[in-house]
Design brief:
Length: 368
C-alpha cells in the first residue's frame, strides 16, 4: 500500500475509483486496487461503461444471450451495467461492513430522464432493486427536476449519490432535498441509519471554463488567477455543508441516527498539463469526504502526492475572496456556473447516447 494513499486515508478522505469494467472485476484488478491502493468505493457513468463494453470481450456472451431472447437495447444496457455494479458491490462489501459510508458503488439513472422527476424516481427504484446490494448508490443529477427525485428516493430508503453539482446554491438545494427525504423517511418509520447520501461537487471543469475566460481577458492580474477558481468554489461549497450540517434541523435528524450527506469531490483529474496532477486531491483534503479519481490521478498521488492536513474546513471566506477577484477582473462567475450546469446535463445525456450506440453495435455483432 502506498504510504501517500494511506496518509490520505488517515486524513479521513475516502478514495474511490472513477472507473469500472468487467475486465477489472473478473481479472481481480479491482480487488487489487482495494487491497493495495486504499480504494474503498467506485463511481461509474455511461461513458465509463461505453468504453468498457467497446474495448472488452467479457460482455459478448451476455449480449448474445440477451439478443437471442429478443431484449431491446435499453434493457440490455440495464442488464450489463447492473450486473457489473452488483459484482463490484460484492468486491467492496468488506469495506462497507467495516464502515457503511464506504464500500459504495454508484450507478446512474438514465440521463435522458434528467428533466423528468417521476421517470427519474422510477429509474432509481428499478436500479436499486436490480443491483440489490446495501452498498449500492443510485446517481441522480442535481437538476431542478432531480431535486424532488432525490427527496422521494431518500424517503424510500434508497441511498443516493447526487451528481452534476457546480454551484453552492444548487448544493444547498440538494442538501435541503436530502434532509426533506430523511424527514419523510423518519415519519414513515424507516431506519435512518441505513440511508446514506453523497453530494458530488464537480471540480476541474470549473477551472477549464474560468481559465479560458481569464486568458481572454489577458491582463497580468487575470492570468494570476488561473487554476484557482475550482478549489475556491469547492471551499465555498464546503462552507455551506458546514452550515447546513451544523443546523438545528440536522441535529434533530442526527438524533434519529441519520447520516450526513458526505461531500464527494468529482472530476478531480487535472485537465491542464501545466498544473500539478494531484492538485484537486491535495487541495481538498478534509475528513469525512470522498475523492473519486481516475486511476491516472490515483497513481500520481501514490507516487508524489502530499497530505498537508485539513486544508478545507473554515476556509469558505478564502474561497469567496478568490471568486470575488474573478468578478473584479471581468469574469462573470455566475455565468460560468450556468454554462457548466447546462453543458453538464448535455454531456450527461450524450454519454447515454454513446452507451446505447456502443451496445447497439455489440448487438449487431452478436446477431451476425
Amino acid at each position: 500500500m502506498s504510504d501517500r494513499l494511506k496518509a490520505l486515508t488517515d486524513a479521513g478522505v475516502s478514495i474511490w475509483l472513477d472507473d469500472l469494467s468487467r475486465e477489472r472485476i473478473e481479472s481481480g484488478g479491482l480487488a487489487d486496487l482495494v487491497a493495495q491502493r486504499s480504494v474503498v468505493g467506485v463511481t461509474t457513468n455511461p461513458t465509463i461503461f461505453a468504453s468498457a463494453i467497446a474495448n472488452g470481450e467479457r460482455y459478448d456472451e451476455q449480449v448474445a444471450r440477451l439478443v437471442e431472447k429478443g431484449e431491446p437495447v435499453d434493457r440490455i444496457v440495464f442488464e450489463l451495467t447492473t450486473e457489473d455494479v452488483r459484482n463490484a458491490c460484492d468486491i467492496l462489501r468488506p469495506a462497507y461492513d467495516a464502515d457503511p459510508a464506504n464500500g459504495r458503488v454508484s450507478i446512474e439513472v438514465e440521463p435522458d430522464l434528467a428533466n423528468d422527476t417521476e421517470a427519474t424516481i422510477a429509474s432509481a427504484r428499478a436500479l436499486w432493486a436490480a443491483v440489490d446490494r446495501p452498498n449500492a448508490l443510485v446517481k441522480i443529477p442535481a437538476t431542478p427536476e432531480g431535486l424532488a427525485a432525490i427527496t422521494a428516493a431518500t424517503a424510500e430508503g434508497i441511498s443516493v449519490n447526487v451528481t452534476l453539482m457546480f454551484s453552492t446554491q444548487r448544493y444547498r438545494e440538494v442538501m435541503d432535498a436530502y434532509l426533506s427525504g430523511l424527514e419523510q423517511a423518519r415519519e414513515a418509520g424507516l431506519d435512518l441509519s441505513t440511508i446514506h447520501s453523497y453530494g458530488s461537487f464537480f471540480v476541474s471543469r470549473v477551472d477549464t471554463e474560468v481559465d479560458k475566460r481569464l486568458e481572454a481577458v489577458g491582463t497580468e492580474t487575470a492570468l494570476a488567477l488561473r487554476g484557482k477558481a475550482a478549489v475556491a468554489n469547492a471551499l465555498v461549497a464546503y462552507g455551506a455543508f458546514e452550515e447546513v450540517f451544523g443546523s438545528e434541523r440536522w441535529r434533530a435528524l442526527e438524533a434519529a441516527d441519520a447520516n450526513r450527506q458526505r461531500p464527494l469531490w468529482a472530476s478531480t483529474g487535472v485537465k491542464n498539463p501545466d498544473y500539478d496532477d494531484t492538485l484537486y486531491v491535495r487541495d481538498l483534503v478534509v475528513a469525512e469526504t470522498v475523492n473519486t479519481m481516475p486511476e491516472k490521478t490515483l497513481d500520481a498521488f501514490a507516487d508524489h502526492g502530499e497530505v498537508l492536513g485539513d486544508v478545507v474546513s473554515g476556509r469558505a471566506g478564502a474561497g469567496a475572496a478568490i471568486l470575488e477577484r474573478l468578478g473584479e477582473v471581468g469574469v462573470d462567475f455566475d455565468d460560468v456556473l450556468a454554462v457548466l450546469e447546462t453543458e453538464g446535463v448535455d454531456k450527461f445525456k450524450k454519454s447515454w447516447t454513446d452507451l446505447v450506440e456502443t451496445v447497439s453495435t455489440q448487438m449487431k455483432k452478436a446477431s451476425a
